[in-house]
Amino acid sequence: MSALPSYEVYAVRYAHNANARRSGAFIGGDAHDGPMPLDYFVWAIKGEGRSFILDTGFDQAMGDKRGRQFLRSPAVGLKAVGVDPDAVEDVILSHMHYDHCGNYDLFPRARYHIQDKEMAYCTGRCMCHFGLRVPFEEDDVVAIVRKLFAGRVAFHDGAEEIAPGLSLHHVGGHSKGLQVVRVHTRRGWMVLAADASHFYANMEKGRAFPILHNHEDTLEGYATMRRLASAPDAIIPGHDPLVLARYPAAAPGLEGIAHRLDADPKGG
Ligand SMILES: [Zn+2]
Ligand SMILES: [Zn+2]
Fold it and tell me: What three-state secondary structure class fits 249?
């Protein structure tokens, strides 16, 4: 009998990229090229009287700038699953890439949980290099520094529990300070991978997505997540449209907007 709380977990979709190709999803490309669209999510973790948000997405202007199809503010899906952004006290940033840390004013009361290494990475010498800098946005980095000076950033180094049944784990790889979230649910331990695995196929095939700081750490991250999760299918990739196919909408009418990840997968 576990005394741990069981959280509800939701994937909230806010943007899409219909133009992505399979050849761009794996280092070394793929012999069978074809469309491989990406979805963009934030994730809500609801406990007893307290909600945690993983990542904050981007807005319409950033979608236009980056050529992504912005669908709706992440706030729409969050409110639909009973999360009031004004009341959220804890936001976890998996990493500082533009699609994970925008919408700076959406959570006015929240403190932001980030790994030491990610803040050092996005404000340090690696940003001298265009190839490492390209997934980051100057305004995003300035915004998190402003929150730091407002006393609204909590730093983590490695693995740390931030609430009973909810912990953060540094994996690095894709970005130097990338962290994943392990959360206890009614189905056991779930891992929200964010960009530690963009698609199910990255971790299942052991083939990294081409944007990375360190290839070795990316591949080791797959093994780390398998150790943290109760089952391989309890690892939720960060950009895979299959997530919405595998898990039911949070309520009728929320198909494609908010899906419930702690529910039993469709088809058993
Ligand atoms: Zn990323
Ligand atoms: Zn991403």
Answer: strand
* Centre of ligand 2 from the C-alpha of residue 1, in Å: 37
Q: State residue 30's pLDDT score.
A: 85
Q: How far is the CA of 185 from the centre of ligand 2 (A)?
A: 24
Ligand 1 centre distance from Cα of residue 108 (Å): 24
Q: Of the ligands numbered here, which is closest to the C-alpha atom of 135?
A: 1
pTM above 0.85, yes or no: yes
pLDDT tens digits, 199-213: 999 999 999 999 999
Q: pLDDT by residue (tens digit) across 256-267?
A: 999 999 999 887
- As a whole number of angstroms, the distance between CA 98 and CA 95 comes to 9
Structural tokens at position 29: 């490309």
- The rounded distance, in Å, linking the Cα atoms of 262 and 186 is 7
d(CA 82, CA 41): 17
Helices (H), 81-151: 116-122, 130-133, 138-149
Q: How far is the CA of 99 from the centre of ligand 2 (A)?
A: 5
Residue type at 238? G
| Domains of the chain as residue ranges with CATH | 8-260 (3.60.15.10)
Ligand nearest to the CA of 100: 2
